Amino acid sequence: MLPVMLDPSRTRIGLAGRGALTVRRLEWFRKLGFTPEIYSDTPSDTLLALAGEQYLPRLPDPGDLVALDVLWIADLERSEAEDLYVQARAVKVLVNVEDDLPLCDFHTPAVVTRGRLTIAAGTGGASPAVAATVRSKLEDAFPEDWADALEDIAAARAQLRSEGAPTPDILADARRRLAAARLI
To answer: Tens-digit pLDDT profile for the chain (184 aa)?
Structure first.
């Protein structure tokens, strides 16, 4: 697997589905601070309540797909998901069909966030339960204090760079700050 972090402010992302799995994926996005475009022809009451302004009352059509970069699909019958997958891939959209490995161009990792720090664990779809277990261990290993430490380090890095500090000095400063915060 090739791990990649996507910036949702630069990537057009869609979520297509109807029920509990779609709601779970939407909650995952929201926890990460982002709401994708949500396509659903027959949304569950919960999905409809959560979707808000990003809700479009249909599954993505070819015009929608050509505008997307990435599409998550959940809660559709396999034949529907496969048809949507084929249409999306034809216009170069990367697709993940929840719990259907042959219809996944990428896999969704288990994620821990501490402010701007994002740590992801994935198994390439082999076992989401294992990835979730690793996420739990990461949550214990990386307390919330990492968020404040990262902000401090980012500010110091910007200052040091503006002063022309060499990269080794910037790295050493970051390590000193992590040590001072008792995180390493």
So the answer is: 788 899 999 999 999 999 999 999 999 999 998 999 999 999 999 999 999 999 999 999 999 999 999 999 999 999 999 999 999 999 999 999 998 999 999 999 999 999 999 999 999 889 989 999 999 999 999 999 999 999 999 999 999 999 999 999 999 999 999 999 999 9
Q: Any idea where the domains of the chain sit in the sequence?
A: 13-108, 145-180
Task: Return the bridge partners of 118, or none.
Answer: 113
Rounded Cα distance, 52 and 152, in Å: 35
Residues 57 and 40 sit within 8 Å (Cβ to Cβ): yes
Query: What size, in residues, is the chain?
Result: 184
Please tell me the number of Cα atoms within 13 Å of 96 on its side-chain side: 17
Strand partners, 133: none
Quickly name the fold that domain 13-108 has.
Rossmann fold (3.40.50)
DSSP label at 31?
H
Beta-carbon count within 10 A of 59 CB: 22
Measured in whole angstroms, the distance separating CA 37 from the mean position of its chain's CA atoms is 14
Task: Map tokens 């979520």 to a residue.
Answer: 15
Q: What is the DSSP string of 47-67?
A: HHHHHGGGEESS---HHHHHH
